[in-house]
Amino acid sequence: MPDQIQTTLSGPPPDRHSELVAMLRQLKLSAFSASFGEVALKSSRQNLSHEAFLHELARLECEQRAQRSTERRLRQSHLPLEKTFATFELAQLPPALRLQIERLSSGEFIETATNVIAVGPPGSGKSHLSSAVGHALILKGKSVLWISTANLVQKLLAAKRDLRLPQELTRLDRLDCLILDDIGYVQHSRDEMEVLFTLLAQRYERGSVIITTNLVFSEWERIFKDPMTTLAAIDRVVHHSVILDMLSVESYRARQAQAQTQTPPPPETQKSRSDETAGPMADS
After folding, report:
1. Strands (DSSP E) along the chain, which ranges?
2. Same domain assignment for residues 58 and 82
3. Percent of the chain with pLDDT over 70
4. Residue 119 included in any domain
């Protein structure tokens, strides 16, 4: 035994760097593993304490985990990547509506299971706005799903046929915010109406729903068919809600087309047209 101890002590020193990397990876501390060498060198140069060295590594680990978590929630949300507040023309909206949207971007409505209903004609920016709010929620650590109402209804019908509708509703119930896009575009059958109503009833006062629609509430009977069911659905959706009235907002596509027709041609085009008009006289 003493000979074995002597052999071990006199043998080659362990590769502490590789061993530390392996242990950090086993502990799933990937930022620690990638950064400890650089941070150690920086700490040595700046004569930082051991506590400061550890604090910097812990900060990097938390920052990386938060970023990965955000990226994962964004992938799972199916939000349109380009439809954020950075690309939304907020200045085109009335001041009162802008104030409502700024409050929504804080995400506080999620804490009270408040719904949001954006009502407006096609092209008014309802879908873009709902997506932008969803992106803001993702950055605040909330779970979001953005889906067209037609697609969601078909998923719920398939789950009902497979006798797993309760499980699917439970999965959706875990979301902080469910965004139903274009609820007014699909003329639902009675079976579709029933699963949609079941979803809205289950999330009532339990989780927020953002709904975009081109139908005012008096026209929602086109969705739910039966007057009493329509009234019950509206009652649950509106009870705790923020209504975004976008009925008077001009279509973004119409504004864009109008701007293109009013934009003067570039100088090169103007010059070429001038030359064509002048003809041979321009050379004389």
Report:
1. 115-119, 144-148, 177-181, 208-213, 241-245
2. no
3. 82
4. yes
pLDDT in tens, 60-108: 888 888 999 999 999 999 999 999 999 999 988 999 999 999 999 999 9
The residues that bridge with 9 in the sheet, in sequence order, are: none
Q: What letter does residue 178 receive in the DSSP assignment?
A: E
Please count the structural domains in the chain.
Answer: 2
Residue 124 in tokens: 């008014």
266 domain-assigned: no
CA atoms within a 13 Å half-sphere pointing along the CA-CB vector of 65: 11
Q: Are residues 64 and 184 in the same domain?
A: no
Tokens describing residue 262: 């009013």
Tokens encoding 274: 């001038």
Between CA 42 and CA 166 the distance in angstroms is 55
Q: Provide the 3-class DSSP secondary structure of residue 28.
A: coil
Contact 111/236 with Cβ under 8 angstroms?
no
Burial of 277 (0-12, 13-18, 19+ CB in 10 A): exposed
Question: Does residue 138 sit within a domain?
Answer: yes
Residue type, 145: L
Output Rg (C-alpha) for the chain, integer angstroms.
29
- Which residues span the domain enclosing 26? 14-76
Question: Structure pTM?
Answer: 0.77
Rounded distance, CA 219 to CA 6, Å? 89
Q: d(Cα 137, Cα 132) in Å, to the nearest integer?
A: 9
The CATH code of the domain that includes 149 is 3.40.50.300
Give the whole-angstrom CA distance, residue 213 versus residue 247: 10
In the numeric block, which tokens belong to residue 150? 């037609």
